[in-house]
Write a structure and sequence with these properties.
single chain, alpha/beta, Nucleotidyltransferase, domain 5, 2 domains, 45% helix, 19% strand
């Protein structure tokens, strides 16, 4: 499908964070149609997709951070049949000039997807090997502060699939 020149299509962009994802939607020439924040839950994901689709035919979403905070959202978008591309964080010089802003980053993600700057399809990370690998070493090393180790463990647990969580709970029950 041709994006440029088709006024019925819209492109989404998402700046991802631990608690809130900021989404933007642009038209076929990059004009901003809206910016909104959504919770990082399944309900929030559904609301985000519904909101993006309310502007027109959603053909593509650029997601910043598909390997970390955006992993769950990327999986969800793919299961709903939406094409997802991984968007790099804006370079430091541009961010310094424009300032750090989640809405600006979300719009930049949408425009990167529209322009073809972002073309990489994110890894699915839904197999057992990537999940086991990510949970095998929950923190960088023994010199890492306990607070950072706890944050790393919470992050890994929140991104783990339901099956992996059940396996962990079963192992914990057997050990006790």
């Amino acid at each position: 499908m041709t994006i440029v020149g088709n006024p019925d299509v819209v492109i989404g962009g998402v700046d991802t964070h631990a608690d809130v994802h900021v989404a933007a939607v642009v038209d076929h020439v990059g004009g901003v149609l809206g910016v909104e924040a959504f919770a990082t839950t399944r309900v929030g994901y559904r609301q985000l997709v519904s909101w993006l689709r309310s502007f027109g035919e959603l053909v593509l979403v650029g997601v910043e951070g598909t390997g970390s905070y955006g992993a769950g959202l990327s999986r969800y978008l793919r299961t709903t049949g939406i094409d997802v591309v991984e968007v790099d964080r804006p370079n430091r010089q541009v961010r310094h000039r424009q300032g750090k802003s989640d809405p600006v980053d979300a719009v930049a993600a949408a425009r990167a997807a529209l322009s073809g700057q972002a073309t990489v399809t994110p890894k699915s990370r839904d197999g057992t090997r990537p999940q086991a690998r990510s949970s095998a070493r929950p923190y960088a090393g023994s010199s890492t502060s306990p607070d950072l180790r706890c944050r790393a463990l919470r992050f890994r647990a929140s991104n783990a699939s339901h099956g992996l969580r059940l396996m962990r709970e079963t192992v914990d029950l057997v050990r006790s």
